Amino acid sequence: xxxxxxxxxxxxxxxxxxxxxxxxxxxxxxxxxxxxxxxxxxxxxxxxxxxxxxxxxxxxxxxxxxxxxxxxxxxxxxxxxxxxxxxxxxxxxxxxxxxxxxxxxxxxxxxxxxxxxxxxxxxxxxxxxxxxxxxxxxxxxxxxxxxxxxxxxxxxxxxxxxxxxxxxxxxxxxxxxxxxxxxxxxxxxxxxxxxxxxxxxxxxxxxxxxxxxxxxxxxxxxxxxxxxxxxxxxxxxxxxxxxxxxxxxxxxxxxxxxxxxxxxxxxxxxxxxxxxxxxxxxxxxxxxxxxxxxxxxxxxxxxxxxxxxxxxxxxxxxxxxxxxxxxxxxxxxxxxxxxxxxxxxxxxxxxxxxxxxxxxxxxxxxxxxxxxxxxxxxxxxxxxxxxxxxx
Length: 391
Hints:
alpha/beta; 2-enoyl-CoA Hydratase, Chain A, domain 1; six-stranded mixed beta sheet; three-stranded parallel beta sheet; 9 strands; 3-hydroxyisobutyryl-CoA hydrolase; ClpP/crotonase-like_dom_sf; hydrolase; HIBYL-CoA-H; ECH_dom
């Protein structure tokens, strides 16, 4: 059986090395399992302390996806096994969300350049890996989305932080609708830095191996790092040299940005929800699909995503992960998450029975349960050491 993550080191012309981490579960579009998270975390830690390693490359196997999300089947099994026992009893969910969020935060704060090849499908947990990379690269096949409303979850893995930093109110629209972004809109939304034709990826890798990386080739593994700014610049130069000459055309999010911002203005979620719902028969298929996805999705997820963005708007990334961890564990016992996975992946009837069934039932009082710590009183937050806390 092939390893779920493949690791390879390639030596550049001057003796410095590049670390390649390949998500290797193409049959599930490289969906992240806990084993994959742990393998990535251990290897990234080793590479961080390797003075002879200049940069890290994250990519996905199979050509169709970087990563289409997390291991929903594994989470579903754990929710079924611990039904009625409370969120803290579900050890698998506790471990999965804690270690996934730690990995994502590690990438955000990594001491060396990280290139993420975000070609093909990038969703959910894949977005969590990609958004923290220092050099995020998209292609003509890139499709990025946070479609958790369709499975009774919310845009986690730091999604509340990311969506709050998109232009205007576009982040809220994407959370409520799960709408997909192409390469052009990925730039507009601030989650891509460079682009490359997928056919040119091998040539870029060859160029990276000819790059005169700064550092100590074969140097001691004493934690000393190559000069970060120099290698960031060298990676940027290589990527720019391989960018397509053809200009990007505005994607649907940018084309409809004024309308999206108008629809999502204010702080009244029912009004915003109704305004988006009115797009279901719109002539533009992207807008119509966005509305249809929202209307078919979990009303509770819509309320939770909205409230999380409000609560975390001015919070640090570490605090956002801590808040999302509590909310994610609450989702494992509230019902809609398990029901959404059942309808989409287990029974595949695509007829989820959401509870609450309407946004009116999923009101501001109802959503507060997602912010109550599930662990025993007096116990520290499992992610307390992730980064600086805020008052």
